[in-house]
Amino acid sequence: MNLQFVLNGKPWRVECEAQETLAEVLRNTLNLNGTKVSCEVQVCGACTVLVDGAPVSACTYLAYEARGKNVTTIEGLEKPDGTLDPLQQAFIDEFAFQCGFCTPGMIMSAKALLDENPAPTRAEIIHYMDGNICRCTGYVPIVAAIQRAAQAMGKETKK
Amino acid sequence: MMPLRRFAMHQPKSVAEASQMLAEFGEKGRLYAGGTELLLAMKHDLLRYEHLIDVKTIPGLNKIELKNGTLNIGGAATHRAIEHSPAVKENLPVLAQMENNVANVRVRASGTLGGNLCFAEPHSDPAALLLALGAKAHLQAKSVRRTVTIDKLITGSYETSLGADELLEGIEIPLAGKSQRAAYVKFQLKERPTLGLALVLDVDGDNIKKAKAVVGSVSPMPTESDKANGLLTGSRAQVEKQLLDAAGALAQAADPVDDLEGGADYKRHLIGVFLKRAFIKALA
Ligand SMILES: Cc1cc2nc3c(=O)[nH]c(=O)nc-3n(C[C@H](O)[C@H](O)[C@H](O)COP(=O)(O)OP(=O)(O)OC[C@H]3O[C@@H](n4cnc5c(N)ncnc54)[C@H](O)[C@@H]3O)c2cc1C
Ligand code: FES
Ligand code: FES
Questions:
Q1: Which of B128, B173, B233, B270 could cross-link to B71 by cystine, CB 3.0-4.6 Å?
Q2: Which of A19, A48, A59 minimises the CB distance to B6?
Q3: What are the angstrom distances between the C-alpha of B112 and each of A10, A73, B116?
Q4: Where in chain B is the domain with CATH 3.30.43.10?
């Protein structure tokens, strides 16, 4: 199957098979290893990427589904000059990762949340992030990082 | 990574064409929507198909619209689309709120209402609420259409009355007027709900004229009980006194089973707790 889609702002064309998942195409064909794979059953969120702005589990989402769509992965967040996305910076500032394996998925989910709801309450953050599991940092700094990023982004847009 | 076995993807342009494909592929083919159930089972090699038929390529199968006092939701509408639909939020907030609590945000973005009902996994939130709301399912095979209630669609654990070449086109939910009060509450510790309780009341001042309570996830199919529904009608004060008896009748009808989400005794206890919560929430 010839698959065409926009990946992190650039048009791509790759050969893949119907049964290949988006995670397989990203990691194995395109060598984009930022998207992690852990549970492989839609539970942990390590593989979260955005397709037309909505978060999906790349571990189970077929690459076929991305045809003609916009895919954003963790590699697509930093600006061309190397400036980190406010969410990435906030995760560093709040020490919101330890081993870092859940982090790309956490950040992509949080990005989807803030795109939908730029000023979420703490309860809204916890509800939205419910499907992203972290096994070592603990959730307190992760929620704090998302709150911090929301504030930073709010200031940016007001400028 | 856990690879999937090879299959071919087909893109029908109409329900009739999809039905034709189902007939042609027989046991080697299956309908595919969001894949959140199907692909997991295929990854674990519990199910094997050589042909998947993508219902999402059928135009209009994901529509959500109001028509003659009913809310119509296409089989391929995602949980996320239903959760965010202005028509649903305005006319049936209980449905939007239930959908906002199904699974996680990623499963909601891919998973469809049709896939949820047609897989008939017993731990389903939509099945319980839709039964309580008196929803109907429109089914179609080639050019033959039929309409069934939810309890006639879901017939057991992972079992439905769908024919081999039949599709779920959509769900139709009657919109009761201003006298309807509805609530859906659930208890969930892991991926799937332990219990979901839907309560739909028709009230006139302090009097509950009609009641429908459905408990889902605790046993193979969502269940209601005429006895429980009877005990839930009358003056509010009287019904409050009968809540525990109603929960007992509902638990007896549901006959909860032990599973990974909890033991039968525990689920029976939860029915009492959650019927009360649903009652308070519905009348709040
Ligand atoms: C981690 C996780 C958590 C979950 N938590 C919950 C929860 O809290 N509550 C809950 O209710 N559910 C939950 N679910 C189930 C979820 O709602 C379903 O997986 C989803 O809605 C299925 O839809 P799908 O489009 O992905 O179906 P698919 O996997 O594509 O298909 C499922 C089945 O339905 C059939 N099918 C699909 N569309 C049609 C159609 N139009 N007509 C006839 N047959 C059709 C397919 O052939 C297949 O057999 C959870 C699932 C996961 C993976
Ligand atoms: S690896 Fe995809 S959800 Fe866990
Ligand atoms: S930082 Fe290690 S799992 Fe989250």
A1: B173
A2: A19
A3: 29, 24, 6
A4: 8-57
How far apart are alpha carbons B245 and B227 in whole angstroms? 9
pTM: 0.97
CA distances from B148 to B129, B131, B221 (A): 16, 11, 16
**Contact residues on chain B for A60, CB-CB shorter than 8 A:** 35-36, 39-40, 43
**CATH homologous superfamily, domain B180-283:** CO dehydrogenase flavoprotein, C-terminal domain (3.30.390.50)
Domain B64-174, CATH: 3.30.465.10
Q: How far apart are CA B184 and CA B199, in angstroms?
A: 6
Question: Side by side, which strands form the sheet with B64-67?
Answer: B64-67, B70-74, B166-174, B136-141, B144-149
Residue B87: phi and psi, rounded to 5, are: -60, -40
Strands, E assignment, B98-252: 136-141, 144-149, 154-156, 159-160, 166-174, 180-187, 195-204, 207-216, 234-235
- Residue B116: its pLDDT value, please? 98
Q: How many CB atoms lie within 10 A of CB A130?
A: 14
The CATH number of A2-76 is which of 3.90.1150.10, 3.40.50.880, 3.10.20.30, 3.30.70.330? 3.10.20.30
Q: Which two tokens stand for residue B44?
A: 């674990």
CA atoms lying within 13 Å on the CB side of residue B118: 31
pLDDT, tens only, B138-173: 999 988 999 999 999 999 999 999 999 999 999 999
Residue B235 in tokens: 């003056």
Considering only CB atoms, which chain A residues are within 8 Å of B36? 42, 60
In sequence order, what are the residues at sequence separation of 6 or more whose Cβ sits closer than 8 angstroms to the Cβ of residue B70? B172, B173, B174, B175
- Which fold would CATH assign to domain A86-158? DNA polymerase; domain 1 (1.10.150)
Q: Tell me the pLDDT of chain A averaged across its residues.
A: 96
The pLDDT of A100-129, averaged and rounded, is 98
Sheet of B29-32, strands arranged across? B8-10, B51-54, B29-32
- Number of A:B CB contacts under 8 A? 73
- Please, are residues B132 and B121 in contact by the beta-carbon 8 Å criterion? no
**ipTM given for this complex:** 0.96
